[in-house]
Automatic annotation (TrEMBL):
Protein name: ABC transporter ATP-binding protein
Basic and acidic residues composition bias: residue spans: 10-22
The UniProt record lists the keyword Disulfide bond: no
Source organism: Segnochrobactrum spirostomi
Signal peptide range: none
Region feature (Disordered): 1-22
PROSITE patterns attached to this UniProt entry: ABC_TRANSPORTER_2
InterPro entries: AAA+_ATPase (IPR003593), ABC_transporter-like_ATP-bd (IPR003439), P-loop_NTPase (IPR027417)
A molecular function (GO) term: ATP hydrolysis activity
ABC transporter domain residues: 27-264
Entry keywords, A to Z: ATP-binding, Nucleotide-binding, Transport
Length: 289
């Protein structure tokens, strides 16, 4: 495996289409630069996300993962570049069209996942109130459906966030992100703070939702287990740009100090063995170049 395999041959192309030919790009970032005063956080960044995939987004703390997510969502201004979501350039569409696009994504932020003064049900209904005109009765029914969808008991709907466990808060925040039946789900560190079993359960839930609802999932994570178990592709942020995007195998073969220490370090060593054990059990029919 060489760098060319992961798309480095074309500098404008952050990553190649995954196996299986052309797939629809649902988020496309090109030449994105974001700065706060003199601090340049992202510079000339390119990234594509394909419909139906779970993309794991990693990078050192403070490298700009949350900033990129907020920039894609239009919450943080950029100094240069274009971002297209679902085929629309977000800088060129009307406020009305922007609101239409907002209805098609759901977000679980890293901080402040839920409003503490609202019950779970009221939190889940917030996006509905903002975007839809529904009767209170229908909103109650829909909120309960979302609560059940994320594996919470119906009794959790009338509880306040302070009355829930950490894992339940994450699920409730996920229910809110799913409030409007989005096509794209943005998750910023969804399993941070959960124990390994809680995190694995959450990963299972994300996988099931992706499979049943056909979601595209953009997931910022530090969790190597999540990367291994549910991500179709991984993108690494470093040096203010996407250093590499591809499969876990691509990460393991990519020659960059941070990428190597992350994926081959003590925590990554187990993954490395698992991937290679899996690869050696599969037929060696992979194309060579
Ligand atoms: N609104 C803001 N104003 C000024 N600086 C900001 C703002 N938001 C983020 N930054 C800075 O941008 C940099 C990237 O922050 P960001 O939150 O994206 O990091 P991150 O990769 O998500 O880190 P972590 O893994 O710790 O969550 C940091 O230096 C941060 O201080
Ligand atoms: Mg962050």
């Amino acid at each position: 495996m060489t760098m060319a395999d992961v798309g480095a041959s074309d500098p404008r192309r952050a990553d190649p289409a995954p196996q299986g030919g052309e797939r629809e790009v649902v988020i496309s970032a090109r030449g994105v630069t974001v700065a706060f005063g003199t601090q340049v956080v992202l510079k000339d960044l390119d990234l594509d996300i394909y419909r139906g995939e779970v993309l794991g987004f990693v990078g050192g703390s403070g490298t700009g993962k949350s900033v990129l997510m907020r920039t894609i969502l239009g919450l943080t201004p950029k100094q240069a570049g274009t971002i297209e979501v679902l085929g629309q350039d977000l800088d060129k569409i009307s406020d009305q069209a922007h609101r239409q696009i907002e209805r098609r994504w759901g977000v679980l932020f890293q901080m402040g996942a839920l409003f503490s003064s609202l019950t779970v049900k009221q939190n889940v209904q917030m996006p509905m109130r903002e975007h839809l005109k529904l009767s209170p009765q229908l909103m109650d029914e829909l909120a309960l459906l979302k609560v059940e969808l994320v594996g919470l008991p119906r009794t959790a709907a009338d509880k306040y966030p302070s009355e829930l466990s950490g894992g339940m808060v994450k699920r409730a925040a996920l229910a809110r992100a799913l409030s409007l039946d989005p096509e794209i789900l943005f998750l910023d560190e969804p399993t941070s703070g959960l124990d390994p079993i809680g995190a694995a359960d959450f990963d299972d839930l994300i996988r099931k939702l992706r499979d049943t609802l056909g979601l595209t999932v953009y997931m910022v994570t530090h969790d190597l287990d999540s990367l291994y178990s549910i991500c179709d592709r991984i993108a690494v942020l470093g040096e203010k740009r996407v250093l590499v995007a591809g499969t876990l195998d691509d990460m393991l073969n990519f020659d960059h100090p941070w990428v190597r220490s992350y994926f081959h370090g003590v925590r990554g060593g187990r993954l490395f063995k698992a991937v290679h054990a899996k690869a050696s059990n599969e037929s060696p029919a992979k194309g060579s170049d």
